[in-house]
C-alpha cells in the first residue's frame, strides 16, 4: 500500500470513530454547538471516503483515454470536499438560528467538552500527518483532507471554550451564537477549498510553480538559450506539465537543438523535485535578438551584444519574444 493510500485510510477510520464520539456527546448534552461539530464529522467521513477512491484513481498509469494520467481527479475530490463542507455549514447556520429564537435545553456540558477535546486533539494529529504526507507526495487530495481536519480541530477548540463559558455563566443562548460563528467559519473554509479546486479543473496556471521554474531557468541559463517565452505550468495530481518556447540560434542543426532542449528538461526535473513533463517549442533566432544574445563568435551576428534581458514572471509568461515588447 502506498503512503498516500495509507494516510487517507487512517483519515477515513479516524473520521468514523470521531463522528460516533461527537454524536454521543450531542446525545448527552443536546447542545447545538456540539451538533455542529458532529454534523461536520459526517462530511469528514464522506470526504475521506471519496478522497480514498480519488487517490486510487490518481495512481493509475496513463492510458489511451487519459494521456495526461488521472491526477486531475484530485482537483475534483477537493471540489466535492469543499462543497460538502459548505453544505454542512449552511445546515448548521439554519439549525442554530432557529434554536437562537426558539430556545434549546442543554445539560452535562462538562462531559461533552471532554469528549470534544479528545476528538479535536485526534483531528489535529491526523490533519498534520495528512498535510505533511500530501506535501511530500504532491497530493492535493491529502492536503485538502488534512486542512479540513485542522479546520475541524480549530472549530472544536473554539467549541470547548464556548461550552465552558456557557457552563460558567449559565447563559445558554450562547450555545446557538457559538454554533452560528462556527458555521460561518466552516462555510468560509469550504469556499476557499472549492475555489482552489475549480482553478485546477479550469487549468488555471499555478503561479508559484511558474515563478519557481522561471527562477531555475534564469539561475542556470546558457548562452544558446537566447529567449524563453510563453511559459505555462499545470499540475495533474503529483505530475507537473510545463510548456514554453525557447529561441535558439537558427543555424543549429537538429542534433544541437535536441541537445539544448534535453538539457533544459534534465535541469528542471532535477531542480523541482517532482516528476515533470516538458513540451518545448524551439524558435529560430532573428536579427532583432542579437542585442541580447550572448553566443560568442556567432557567425551571423547582425548587432553587437548590449545587455542581458533578465527572465521574470512578467516577460517569460508572455506569448512574444522580448524584442517585441
From TrEMBL:
It holds the Pfam family Cation_efflux. SUPFAM superfamilies: Cation efflux protein cytoplasmic domain-like, Cation efflux protein transmembrane domain-like. The chain crosses the membrane at residues 7-29, 41-61, 73-97, 109-129, 149-166, 172-191. GO terms for molecular function: cadmium ion transmembrane transporter activity; ferrous iron transmembrane transporter activity; zinc efflux antiporter activity. It is a multi-pass membrane protein. It comes from the Bacteria. It is found in: Membrane. Its main location: membrane. Residues 8-202 form the Cation efflux protein transmembrane domain. Residues 209-285 form the Cation efflux protein cytoplasmic domain. The keyword Protein transport does not apply. One of its GO terms (biological process) is intracellular zinc ion homeostasis. Belongs to the cation diffusion facilitator (CDF) transporter (TC 2.A.4) family. This is Cation diffusion facilitator family transporter. It comes from Pedobacter xixiisoli.
Amino acid at each position: 500500500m502506498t503512503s498516500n493510500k495509507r494516510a487517507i485510510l487512517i483519515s477515513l477510520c479516524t473520521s468514523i470513530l470521531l463522528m460516533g464520539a461527537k454524536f454521543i456527546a450531542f446525545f448527552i448534552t443536546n447542545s447545538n454547538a456540539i451538533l455542529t461539530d458532529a454534523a461536520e464529522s459526517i462530511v469528514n467521513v464522506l470526504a475521506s471516503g471519496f478522497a480514498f477512491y480519488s487517490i486510487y484513481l490518481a495512481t493509475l498509469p496513463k492510458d489511451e483515454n487519459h494521456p495526461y494520467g488521472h491526477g486531475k481527479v484530485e482537483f475534483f475530490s477537493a471540489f466535492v470536499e469543499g462543497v460538502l463542507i459548505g453544505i454542512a455549514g449552511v445546515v448548521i447556520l439554519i439549525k442554530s438560528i432557529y434554536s437562537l429564537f426558539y430556545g434549546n435545553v442543554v445539560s452535562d456540558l462538562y462531559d461533552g467538552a471532554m469528549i470534544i477535546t479528545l476528538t479535536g486533539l485526534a483531528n489535529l494529529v491526523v490533519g498534520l500527518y495528512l498535510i505533511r504526507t500530501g506535501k511530500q507526495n504532491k497530493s492535493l487530495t491529502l492536503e485538502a483532507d488534512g486542512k479540513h481536519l485542522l479546520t475541524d480541530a480549530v472549530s472544536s477548540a473554539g467549541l470547548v471554550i464556548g461550552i465552558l463559558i456557557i457552563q460558567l455563566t449559565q447563559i445558554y443562548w450562547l450555545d446557538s451564537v457559538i454554533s452560528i460563528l462556527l458555521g460561518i467559519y466552516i462555510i468560509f473554509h469550504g469556499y476557499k477549498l472549492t475555489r482552489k479546486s475549480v482553478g485546477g479543473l479550469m487549468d488555471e496556471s499555478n503561479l508559484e510553480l511558474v515563478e519557481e521554474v522561471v527562477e531555475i531557468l534564469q539561475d542556470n541559463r546558457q548562452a544558446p538559450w537566447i529567449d524563453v517565452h510563453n511559459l505555462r505550468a499545470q499540475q495533474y495530481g503529483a505530475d507537473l506539465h510545463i510548456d514554453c518556447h525557447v529561441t535558439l540560434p537558427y543555424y543549429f542543426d537538429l542534433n544541437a537543438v535536441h541537445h539544448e532542449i534535453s538539457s533544459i528538461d534534465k535541469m528542471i526535473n532535477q531542480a523541482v523535485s517532482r516528476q515533470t513533463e516538458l513540451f518545448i517549442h524551439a524558435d529560430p533566432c532573428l536579427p532583432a535578438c542579437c542585442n541580447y544574445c550572448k553566443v560568442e563568435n556567432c557567425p551571423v551576428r547582425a548587432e553587437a551584444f548590449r545587455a542581458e534581458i533578465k527572465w521574470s514572471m512578467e516577460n517569460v509568461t508572455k506569448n512574444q519574444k522580448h524584442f517585441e515588447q
